[in-house]
Every structure is written in structure tokens, then in C-alpha cells.
Amino acid sequence: MARTIPGGAVNITGVVTQFHDVMQITPRFAADIENYVEPGAHTLILNVDMAYATNFNPDNDMVYVTGTFAGFWPVPGTDSENQLMTRVDETMTWTKTLFLEEGVYEYKYFLNDGWGGGEWGETINRTIYIDNDTIIHDIWGHFVLELDAQPTAGGTLSGGGIHPFSAIVPVEANPLPGWEFINWTGDIEHVHNANSSGTTVTMPASDVSLTANFAITGIPENLDLSNETIADGDTECFDALQTITVSDFTVEAGGSVTLIAGESILLLAGTTVEHGGYLLARIAAREDDYCGIPRAMEITKEPVGSKGEDVIPSDLPSVVRENGFFKLYPNPTDGTFTLELTSAELEKTITVEIHSILGNRLFRKELPAQRLHTISLESQLPGMYIIRVMKGENVGVERLIKR
What is the pTM of this model? Predict the structure, then answer.
């Protein structure tokens, strides 16, 4: 077996032989020689994407990471064993594995020897807390600004993506009809005005996650309907976010009324629907399921079976949904669908999220920015889902139906 034993402490497994007063250990395989890991230490794998580094030559430049890992800041290039990062195949990712005790550490990436090649010139550093084995994926000089809408149906967002450290990034929350913007929550210490739908974010030396909160506008919490008559030819819709209480209420022949409440509908004495009249009382199925609020997309349903269950019809036409830099198909889908990137300029990675129509995030994954991806909804119930794709500074949203 031919292998150079690494510097520093190592673990060696092998056959022990004694020659008089000398003990000799002979490893049998290369894997029998490993770097020594102190008991209780945690493995930290640092990966940094160098695609955003300016004036960087991947064939000639050295990439170092230095910080308080040893209790002080060694000058970049003075401790290659613990600082020098290695390239991952032919990618633009460099990696370094360290073994650290539990604690908080500061660090920064540098090009070549000395302090002059840092990601940025300020003394502000990246920070990480280690309490178990950890893998970090950083971007040279840049950080991710993640924007979410709560609920998803409330509005659209702009400004998210990858931004350089200390950049002042405009962000915008645009309510859809029937909704109003409330505030930003999350890492709001970096937001200029958390109560403004249009504001700016100053990027720190860390990723930032913000949520734009929306609320339905013009709908009362509770509604009392009494001494009302819906006459022949009238069509009305009444709604409340919590409870509708109905009494002394008449729907005449030819009249039609719909009642939609978020929690309950009480039909008390004196509620009358004449023959030929129509009254529908139901609980809102989602945040945009009220009178006067246009739904993001209507799904035709038909009752089937002895219990009258609702199912999404199997004969809905399949369409290709396209949103600037990506498209989804088939739509509707029976379980799996294809995400195709249509932009000629591909980032290194994209981030894909899947939300329920109620705004709950079901899936989030960073994927390589190859042209085609197959994604499965097999484990999810039939219905409508929100597909959110982030590529660089672009954020696109599409709706997908699972049959």
C-alpha cells in the first residue's frame, strides 16, 4: 500500500507486530489511515460557490477560509492544512472539512495569501453556531433574500434572490384584489420599514428570510342578517370571516343568496326559503373563497358516488403553464410534472417550493439549474398547488392542479 500519511494526528488501523521492545503497526488499506477526530468534535463541511467572485481564476487562485476556529484569526495562507479549500471536480464550488467543538464561530473566505483578498473589506464576518455535524453552502460575497407571502393567495412579491453583502435591495409586496398588505415579519432588523409594502432590505453577512402578511379587506368579522328579503330576480352574497347569524330572513321564489363564513353559519327561527328560491350556506374553503374576491383559478368539480364526494374531473384539458423563465407540464397532472427552465442564461442553482392553496409550504429544495426537472406530487391529495421558483433575482409563481 502506497499512501502519504497526512500531517497532524491520525488514526491508524492495522496489524500490530512486536520486535523486541518495539511495537509496529502495519495498515493494510489506504482507508486504514484517517485524520484524527477529537472525541465530541463535530464535522463542519464548508462549501462556497465562487461563481460570483470577480477577477477570479479557478486554475491559478487559491481559496482560503479563516476565522475563529482555532480561537484566533490566522492570516489567510499561513495554515494551509486548516485553511486551503479544494475544488469539487470541475464545478465552481470549493470545499473544506473542519472538526470543531460546540460553539459560535466567525469566518470569512479569502482569495490567495493575506488579508487583501476577502469577500468584502468590512470587519463584519459570517457567523455559525455548531452543535452537531453541519454542511454549509455559501456563495462568495453574496447571500439569499427569501420572500414568502402569507397566505400565498394574498399577493405577489418581488426583490427576492441572491444579493451581495451590504446591498440595499428594494422589495415589494403587491396585494391581489380583495386583499391588503399588513406587514413584513421575519428578519425585520434588516428592513427599513416593516410596515410598508414597498421598502428596502440591507443585506447582512447572512441569509435573510421575510414574510409579507396579507389580510382580506372589506369583510366583517361577524355578520347579523335579520329582517331581510331576497326578492324574485335578486342575487346576493354575504360573507364574514367568522360567523353569520341569520334570522327573520326570506328568500322569495326566483331569489338567490349565498352565505360564506370562515367558521360557522347560524340559521335561526324565521329563516324561510320559498319554493323556487335558492339559498347556499357554506364555510370558506380557503383564504380567497369569499364574495367579491376573484379566485386565483377555478376548478370545476362534480359530485360522484353514493356519498357525493367531490373529485377533480379526469378530463380537464392539459395545458402548459409558463412564467417567463420556466414552464410546468402536464397541468393538470396525475402525480408527477416537469419543470422546464426556458431562460437561456442559467444560474448555478434554482430553488423550488410547493405550497398548498392555504399557503402551507409542503416542499422546498435547491436544485441544479439544468433544463428539465421531474417533481412528484404522488404523496399529496388532489387539488390546487402553488409552484414557486427562484432563479437568481427572478421569482416566478404558477398554479398546478393534481387530479
Answer: 0.56
